[in-house]
Design a protein that fits this description.
The chain has helices at residues 2-43, 49-80. It has 92 residues and is mostly helical. It is rod-shaped and about 110 Å long. The longest helix is centred in the N-terminal third of the chain and has 42 residues, at 2-43. The chain contains two helices and no strands.
Length: 92
């Protein structure tokens, strides 16, 4: 009976070790694949979501400021009497 217990203990240890090796191999494979994907993405000059959102926010702010300045310029031109020629002689 002790022979069977020893056999099953050995099989159990072997399976436990095999699972540990398999988990280690899985972890290494995931790390390698993740590294390759990161390098591939870096080579393609993709932007991160954070960078995209920051540039989009800057564009929205610039458009808003541009619209406000256009309105101020139109108001000033209206106050001065309509279209006047600029420094280059061309009407605005």
């Amino acid at each position: 009976m002790t022979t069977q217990n020893k056999f099953f203990d050995d099989v159990s240890k072997l399976m436990t070790n095999a699972m540990g090796v398999a988990q280690g191999a899985k972890s290494e494979a995931e790390t390698a694949i993740r590294g390759r994907v990161d390098r591939w993405l870096a080579d393609r000059d993709f932007v991160t979501r954070e960078d995209f959102d920051a540039v989009r926010d800057m564009a929205v702010k610039a458009r808003t400021e541009n619209a406000e300045l256009r309105a101020r310029l139109d108001a000033l031109e209206a106050r001065l009497g309509g279209t006047e020629s600029g420094s280059d002689g061309e009407p605005r």
